[in-house]
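User: New here, please read:
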Amino acid sequence: MSRAMFEYTKTVLKKVSFNTELFCKELEKAIKRLLPYEINELRIWLSEFALEKPELNECLLLIKK
C-alpha cells in the first residue's frame, strides 16, 4: 500500500507542476503522508524532475528541511 502512495504522489505532483503554488501545497501533503525512506526517494526524484522545470526549485526547499 505504501508504495502505491509514493507512486500516486509522483503522479499528482506531475499533474500540478504547471502551478508552483499548487505544487508546493501537494508536496507539503506528501511529506506528511510518506514514510521517511519514501521522502528520500521523492527528494531524488524531485531533483531530477525540477531540472526540466526550474520554477519549481523554490518548492524543493520544503523537502530539503
In short: The chain has one domain: 2-63.
